[in-house]
């Protein structure tokens, strides 16, 4: 069983930056594709970003809405995955979650709230 704990969310002004963290425990995740997802009020949860390694090559994928502004990364030694968010917009307001990609239903954590507002 894997436990995922997200942190780092807070209120930030438009144009600001945040870095979210997702700490994994229970087993190593270095071989897993990990992803970030978000759910805005009244909307379904959506994919944000994912990363995975094959051999020595790191791959990443982003939703079009965040491409060029968000960066996913990980520290396998710390079993932590990060989401650096720059140039935040009000439409980025949501609860952010990490999970495997594709996500597993029993791995969803509590998420971390990101609010972008002036």
Structure characteristics:
about 120 residues; mainly beta; four-stranded antiparallel sheet
The oligomeric state of the chains shown is: single chain
- Number of distinct helices: 0
List the uncertain runs.
none
Mean pLDDT: 93
In whole angstroms, the N-to-C terminal distance is 40 Å
Order of helices and strands: EEEEEEEEEE
Largest sheet at a glance? 6 strands, mixed
Give the amount of beta strand, in percent.
Answer: over 45%
What does this structure look like?
The chain is mostly beta strands and 118 residues long. It has no helices and 10 strands. Strands 2-10-9-4-5-6 form a 6-stranded mixed β-sheet, with no helix packed on it.
Summarize the SSE layout with pairings:
Layout (H helix, E strand, L loop, with lengths): L2 E5 L3 E2 L5 E8 L8 E6 L6 E9 L2 E6 L7 E6 L4 E6 L8 E7 L11 E5 L2
Parallel strand pairs: 2-10
Antiparallel strand pairs: 1-3, 3-8, 4-5, 4-9, 5-6, 7-8, 9-10
In short:
By secondary structure, this protein is mostly beta strands. Helix content is 0%, strand content 51%. It has strands at 3-7, 11-12, 18-25, 34-39, 46-54, 57-62, 70-75, 80-85, 94-100, 112-116.
């Amino acid at each position: 069983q894997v436990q995922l704990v997200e942190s780092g969310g807070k209120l930030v002004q438009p144009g600001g930056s945040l870095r979210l963290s997702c700490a994994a425990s229970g087993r190593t995740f270095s071989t897993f594709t990990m992803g970030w997802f978000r759910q805005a009020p009244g909307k379904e949860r959506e994919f944000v970003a994912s990363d995975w390694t094959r051999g020595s090559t790191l791959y990443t994928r982003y939703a079009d809405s965040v491409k060029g502004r968000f960066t996913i990364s990980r520290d396998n030694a710390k079993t932590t995955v990060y989401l650096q968010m720059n140039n935040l917009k009000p439409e980025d307001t949501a609860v952010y979650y990490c999970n495997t990609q594709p996500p597993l239903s029993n791995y969803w954590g509590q998420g971390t709230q990101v609010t972008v507002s002036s």
